[in-house]
């Protein structure tokens, strides 16, 4: 009998997933798995350590029940391994970007688990970001520039109290203080060197809960979508946001560059130390310079397309 391990974070989101652990395990058993569970702890990278352990023990499936951070730990645990279990998602966080992109139900833990019963899986691309001192895998997006701070600026307490609106509140605050950064972005077929307020490298179309910033309809083609936004006035930036909401029309604007690429080398060319961090899957990643590469169809996920 195939084995599945539920790794769940009891503190994610508004509604604790702990109340649905029994239901999720029952769904896994209905799907034909020998099911067991693990509750994450305050110990650093406890979800990552457990994911590595069960992968090496030969488990066939890991179910991530938590927010994007829990999923990030699991992916970073299994991505370097030669043999990797399948992954399913029960979203219990605030933004749940990756689950949103895969059309996994986000307001019902049992319904999310029942996606497994459909048996629909797909090998999806993941990203690998690394420098001389850092290596990190990601499933959704990476980016640089002050706008990306919106995804990790809210504290967990604010996320718990205000939910998704916490991101919006910080987004409005950051718009007032945007400062351009001078970067060199080297991608497959070109180089951008100059000032930018934002660059985003995406594997899916959902970023901080916004679904129309990056048009990335393919999840298994080996390419990132790269979006570069040049410095502009606040009024024009607000217009770009409106165009983005209106079916990705911002991509035709002269202040925006969009290309598809398999790799990206990102270098910071100014001396301003504020905002040096690169945001990876909604969390502070590491500092410039970084090399990103697309690992094509690297992990098999349960999807709901």
From TrEMBL:
Keywords associated with the record: ATP-binding, Kinase, Lipid biosynthesis, Lipid metabolism, Magnesium, Metal-binding, Nucleotide-binding, Phospholipid biosynthesis, Phospholipid metabolism, Transferase
PROSITE patterns: DAGK
DAGKc domain location: 1-133
EC number: 2.7.1.107
InterPro entries the UniProt entry points to: ATP-NAD_kinase_N, Diacylglycerol/lipid_kinase, Diacylglycerol_kinase_cat_dom, Lipid_Phosphate_FormReg, NAD/diacylglycerol_kinase_sf, YegS/DAGK_C
Cofactor(s) needed by this chain: Mg(2+)
GO MF assignments: ATP-dependent diacylglycerol kinase activity
EC class of the enzyme, as a word: transferase
NCBIfam families for the chain: PRK13055.1, YegS/Rv2252/BmrU family lipid kinase
Sequence similarity: Belongs to the diacylglycerol/lipid kinase family.
Name of this protein: Diacylglycerol kinase
Naturally occurring in which organism (per UniProt): Holzapfeliella saturejae
